[in-house]
Design brief:
- This protein is 25% helix and 22% strand.
- The longest helix has 18 residues.
- By secondary structure, it is an alpha+beta fold.
- Strands 1-2-3 form a three-stranded antiparallel beta sheet, with helices on one face.
């Protein structure tokens, strides 16, 4: 599956390309990632903040050239 994951000191967030859901784990209280907090209303702000950071990281590491880096 196509996915992107962001891992911070306290959290792991995974977003799947063709799914309306994802995975959110609090690594300190759930180090084995057994409890998915994605739909937990109490963690919507954390999920949103992590999604924003994930977009920033993807953008930061994206190709910066307006031209392809290889020819077909």
């Amino acid at each position: 599956p196509r996915l992107r994951t962001l891992v911070t000191k306290h959290w792991r967030l995974t977003v799947y390309a063709n799914a309306a859901w994802g995975e959110l784990s609090h690594l300190e209280s759930d180090p084995h990632e057994l409890n998915n907090l994605w739909e937990d209303a109490g963690h919507r702000t954390v999920r949103g903040d992590l999604m924003t950071e994930l977009v920033r990281q993807i953008t930061r590491h994206a190709e910066t050239s307006p031209y392809p880096s290889a020819l077909a």
